[in-house]
Amino acid sequence: AAAGVDGELVLGRLEADHGDAAEAVERLREEWRRQPGIAVADALGWALHRDGRDEEALTFATTATDSAKGGGVRKALYAYHRGAIELALDRPGVARRHLELALRTNPAFSPLWAPAAQEALSDLGDPPLTEAPADVRLQAAPVPP
Fold first, then answer.
1. Contact yes or no for 105/76 (Cβ under 8 A)
2. pLDDT (tens digit, 0 to 9) for every residue of the chain, 145 residues total?
3. 23: domain CATH number?
4. 8-46 burial by CB neighbour count: b if 16+ within 10 A, else e?
5. In a domain, 62, yes or no
6. Which of 27, 76, 99, 116 has its CA 20 to 30 A from that of 83?
7. pTM, to two decimals
8. Distance between CA 12 and CA 9 in Å, rounded?
9. Where are any strands of DSSP class E within 46-100?
């Protein structure tokens, strides 16, 4: 890494977004073996998603975004990647949460992906009442005496 720049990571991200996703997966898997870390987990997860391997992609995206898994860096791009992967896996509630987090963290996080996040949220519409978290219980207000 010259001057703190990891060329393989940069090239892998570029391939995933604008080139050959399978090439990105190959490049980033090698990088993961060499130096596993949050940035590589996010990039590899995104490359796997772009290559159509969403179940495996979610494993790496979770590593990059879930503090219980060692990630949890509050980075809009990572949240967007996880949201897009969740959406591809037909998990609209979790996808919505991560897409909203991406835009809350930085509404202009990417000229390419911020508009895609906004469009995905618009397409999802308002969450149905059945998507409330399991630990949220609606209770009737107490009746005054």
1. yes
2. 444 557 999 999 999 999 999 999 999 999 999 999 999 999 999 999 999 999 999 999 999 998 876 666 789 999 999 999 999 999 999 999 999 999 999 999 999 999 999 999 999 988 776 655 554 445 555 556 5
3. 1.25.40.10
4. bbebbbebbbeeebbebbebbeebbeeeebbbbbbbbbb
5. yes
6. 27
7. 0.82
8. 5
9. none
Domain with 112, as residue range(s), is 7-125
Question: Can you tell me whether residue 55 is helix, strand or coil?
Answer: helix
What total of structural domains would you count in the chain? 1
| Helices of type H across 52-112 | 54-65, 76-88, 92-105
39 with 71: CB under 8 angstroms?
no
Nearest by Cα to 103 from 122, 127, 90, 87? 122
* Residue 26 falls inside a structural domain: yes
Q: Which of 1, 17, 14, 67 is nearest to 38 (CA)?
A: 67
Amino acid at 36: P
Q: Is residue 66 included in any domain, yes or no?
A: yes
Q: Do you know the residue count of the chain?
A: 145
